[in-house]
Amino acid sequence: MTDADAPDTADVRGRLGLIVPSSNTTAEPEFRRSLPDDVTVHGARMALEAVTVGELDAMSDDAARAAELLGHADVDAVAYACTTGSLLHGPGFDAELEDRLSEAAGVPAVATARSVVRALEALDAERIAVVTPYTADLDAKEREFFEAAGFAVASIDGRGLEANTEIGALTPDDAVRQVLECVDGGGDGDELDAVFVSCTNYRSLAAVGELESKLGVPVLTSNGATLWDVCGAAGLEVDGIEGGSLVERDRH
């Protein structure tokens, strides 16, 4: 969509605030591609180059200020679009983060880790497989988070990447191959309720349809779950969001 094609301000039905790591090149395009022209996306960034425990922890210091600034744009809701950044400190941190950002922005806020939990609950999923681009230490934190939230993690597979630009260079085809290798290689396909592809910088939303067709179970991505959740928080009914089985479910 060019500037000439952009909707007139009077035609805008909703505004979504999107807080992303500074090195994220995926969340904004995936959100924009999935939304109709009358729902606009407005971004704010937090400094992060490497997806490590230390940098993720430091990045969270910028979150409230980013939310406050998005509130100046009169957004309807704010999304903190970073998976590991919203589960880093274990159970409850995701909910605390949402409360903090909501207070700063003056509107409802969602955080990706909590959005994924809501999405899995909406799908009645209990046993899941998780695919990530992360290192083993972050995969361990992600497993702990989902198990504490009540899900059985049948398998978790990471790529061992730290540089967020390398993660952003991954393609939907990479996601398809990684998921199929993880699920088929682990023999979990017939026992799963859902598969989750983690990381808002992993270009995987476009892979959901193919993966659901091959696996026969719902497939979630970080951006897909976050987009579904923030639209619900904003009270926006949006047709045609990319995201497979999830888009048919109501937000709890």
From TrEMBL:
Superkingdom: Archaea
Lineage: Archaea, Methanobacteriati, Methanobacteriota, Stenosarchaea group, Halobacteria
Pfam families on file: Amdase
Name the UniProt record assigns to this protein: Aspartate/glutamate racemase family protein
InterPro entries for the chain: Iso_Racemase_Enz_sf, MaiA/AMDase
